[in-house]
């Protein structure tokens, strides 16, 4: 079918673009709303959330209405925006604007509900084994609920009944997707407010938690699944970070690259025979290798320079210990050295073709965005980034000498020269490593246990708490020992003797993957992550 401006496919593509623009506008309106800036009572916050959400609903109804008027089928519009959003067109609040299109959408919604009812009845008839298989599919893919935005059939029907009974002027219901958008917008508002001069961070934190409490009051009132809201939140944040990696700075688990997205999965869309490949909203904890399948991201509080460097060291340490072979170990080192360029030229990441390299450079970019957002000067950013890099190597040399020795034995002269050249080429590293070398030599001359006061530009040594390989999840708290007389990152390894029986396995390996809640993982992996309550869904 061809509409005024092209085929159905063209109109659907345009609808997808318009819904993304509406999403961004809604999040930005929440971010600029001041909902976390003053001590507003929860009823006031509820009204502000409801008003902003109603404006978003109006935008979405208009976006859906346009392709319907141009001849696109109601079924295609429903498939694009999801069941919950499609039901907004049936609201009495938009009867005058939607007109006859409401009947077409009601028919499409009814047909979809009937299809789901028949499918669920078929599953039930097959018995418990079939239901368990279906549940495993949902848990693995996040699909089976109207493209991660819907509810089970009976809950959809209850929702439809509420929409049909609603009087004009009533509040339109949240969907799991719109609730997740609201959560993201509230988090971004609190992130901005905390970083304004003279901000009362404790008050803003309380307002943030109060606003989330008001939002999740609506979630419960509207019969939504909190776990589905959480999954939507993780998907939305992943999309925003993909568009602009600096968005990661808002959240504790992403601001320094602790969590990375899992690979897309291939599966059959429920109710169809169509195979698709899509990302399901899960992440991998780079510190531990756990797969994160539940929970929401935590708002990142402003951090001091030493806290940033500690977080940088944790991320780099986690990647180094997870390297599968010496070549990958060298690649990780090289790419984080190159990553220092993202401080001045963040857009350089887009020129990188290799996916793994681009991911690491984006983590570096997010690290600098987090530091810049917290008001660190350029010099402080350099010291935190390079200091974290050097410290991750030092601690690794002490905790995983076999890995280091194997890498050293396999390091060709050409590869070693390449790393030296990269360190020399990127001035951040050349300056900081030279400074670090000078202080290390001075400490050694003072003798064991004696240190001279650090210079005003020297970055503090990152605490060895970044290492977490003790039985039962305990942390090793011994302080890292600087390499005596080192002249840079290469010398951290040059004096490490290769012991017999090399074993490069470690606690951070992704071979130990298991599914865990985001909340539980974030609180155990980092002292600053998850320091305040979050909704778990």
From TrEMBL:
Skewed-composition ranges (Basic and acidic residues): 435-447, 497-514
Highest taxon above the source species: Bacteria
Region of interest called Disordered, as start-end residue ranges on this chain: 435-537
Biased composition annotated in UniProt, kind: Low complexity: 478-489
Annotated protein name in UniProt: Uncharacterized protein
The organism of origin for this protein: Nocardiopsis algeriensis
């Amino acid at each position: 079918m061809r509409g005024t401006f092209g085929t159905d496919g063209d109109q659907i593509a345009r609808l997808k673009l318009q819904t993304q623009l509406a999403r961004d506008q809604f999040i930005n309106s929440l971010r600029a709303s001041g909902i976390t800036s003053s001590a507003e009572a929860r009823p006031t916050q509820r009204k502000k959330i409801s008003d902003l959400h109603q404006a978003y609903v109006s935008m979405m109804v208009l976006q859906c209405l346009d392709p319907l008027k141009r001849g696109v089928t109601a079924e295609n519009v429903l498939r694009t925006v999801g069941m919950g959003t499609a039901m907004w067109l049936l609201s009495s609040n938009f009867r005058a604007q939607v007109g006859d299109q409401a009947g077409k959408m009601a028919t499409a919604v009814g047909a979809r509900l009937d299809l789901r009812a028949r499918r669920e009845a078929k599953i039930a008839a097959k018995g418990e084994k079939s239901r368990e298989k279906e549940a495993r599919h949902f848990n693995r893919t996040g699909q089976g609920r109207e493209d991660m935005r819907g509810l089970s059939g009976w809950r959809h029907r209850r929702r439809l009944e509420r929409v049909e009974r609603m009087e004009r002027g009533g509040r339109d219901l949240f969907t799991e997707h719109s609730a997740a958008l609201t959560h993201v917008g509230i988090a971004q508002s609190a992130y901005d407010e905390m970083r304004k001069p003279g901000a009362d961070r404790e008050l803003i934190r309380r307002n943030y938690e109060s606003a989330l409490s008001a939002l999740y009051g609506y979630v419960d009132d509207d019969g939504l699944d909190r776990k589905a809201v959480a999954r939507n939140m993780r998907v939305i944040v992943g999309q925003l970070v993909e568009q602009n990696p600096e968005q990661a700075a808002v959240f504790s688990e992403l601001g320094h690259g602790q969590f990375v997205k899992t690979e897309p999965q291939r599966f059959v869309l429920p109710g169809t025979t169509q195979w698709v490949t899509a990302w399901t909203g899960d992440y991998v904890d780079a510190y531990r290798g756990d797969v994160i399948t539940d929970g929401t991201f935590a708002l990142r509080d402003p951090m001091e320079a030493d806290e940033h460097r500690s977080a940088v060291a944790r991320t780099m340490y986690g990647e180094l210990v997870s390297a599968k072979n010496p070549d990958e170990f060298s690649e990780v080192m090289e790419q984080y050295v190159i990553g220092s360029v993202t401080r001045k030229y963040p857009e350089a990441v887009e020129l990188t073709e290799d996916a793994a390299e681009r991911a690491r450079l984006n983590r570096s970019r997010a690290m600098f965005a987090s530091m810049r957002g917290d008001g660190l000067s350029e010099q402080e950013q350099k010291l935190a980034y390079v200091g974290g890099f050097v410290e991750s190597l030092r601690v690794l040399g002490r905790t995983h000498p076999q890995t280091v020795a194997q890498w050293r034995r396999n390091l060709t002269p050409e590869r070693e020269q390449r790393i030296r050249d990269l360190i020399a080429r990127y001035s951040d590293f050349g300056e900081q490593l030279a400074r670090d070398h000078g202080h290390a030599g001075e400490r050694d001359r003072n003798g064991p246990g004696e240190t001279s006061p650090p210079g005003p530009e020297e970055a503090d040594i990152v605490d060895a708490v970044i290492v977490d390989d003790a039985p039962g999840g305990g942390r090793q708290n011994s302080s890292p020992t600087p390499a005596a007389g080192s002249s840079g990152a290469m010398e951290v390894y040059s004096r490490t003797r290769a012991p017999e029986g090399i074993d490069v396995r470690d606690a951070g390996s992704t071979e130990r993957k298991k599914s865990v809640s985001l909340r539980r993982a974030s609180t155990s992996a980092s002292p600053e992550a998850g320091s305040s309550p979050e909704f778990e869904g």
